[in-house]
Amino acid sequence: MEIYPSEQDRLLKLKKWLDYEISASTLYLFSWFWGILLLLAALAAIIFIPFMLKVLFQEKKYGWIISFFIFVILPALLIHLAHIGIMYKVILNYVPLGLFFFYCLTLKFAVRGWVLDNKFKRGEKVFIKSTDDVFNNYKF
Questions:
Q1: CA of 95: how far to CAs of 3, 4, 90, 99, 101, in Å?
Q2: For position 81, what pLDDT does the model report?
Q3: Mutual orientation of helices 5-30 and 35-58 as an angle, nearest 10°?
Q4: What is the pLDDT of residue 25?
Q5: What letter would DSSP give residue 84?
Q6: Contact yes or no for 103/71 (Cβ under 8 A)
């Protein structure tokens, strides 16, 4: 299978946005105190989801798409349809957003592996000295 530059560019762009998206998880933590930050985090997620799904479809990562719907969309629907008190529903509305940012965190690590795989398939040299280098190069 030949890897074209546009495929690599898509993955690199997704990787870049996931790096920023992880910063938005900090907004999620602060959202317990400030409503406006929750709104900004939710808007960032809503804007990012179509791009993320587009790249996952183009890369044929159907398992990741299915897991997105199971871990993010399904809980949001169940919370929305649940017949519970309004106070509980307000609190539970934070759960899908937290799940989304956790999903982005795991996707971030997977995308880094896909980028390395594509570089290897294109014949670029990929040097990893030890597993310590792998973990030290990740931005947590």
A1: 38, 38, 10, 6, 10
A2: 86
A3: 160
A4: 63
A5: -
A6: yes
Is residue 49 within 8 Å of residue 36, measured between CB atoms? no
Domain count of the fold of the chain: 1
In whole angstroms, what is the distance from residue 125 CA to residue 140 CA? 25
Handedness of CA 17, 23, 29, 34 (dihedral sign): negative
> Residue 3 region, left (φ>0) first, then alpha (ψ -120 to 50), else beta?
beta
User: Which SS3 state, helix, strand or coil, does residue 5 take?
Assistant: helix
Report the alpha-carbon distance of residue 106 to residue 129 in Å, rounded. Answer: 23
Cβ partners under 8 Å of residue 121, min gap 6: 1, 3
Residues of the chain with pLDDT under 50: 1-2, 140
The whole-angstrom separation of Cα 74 and Cα 4 is: 35
Tell me the residue range of the domain where 109 lies.
Answer: 5-136
What DSSP character marks residue 83? Answer: -
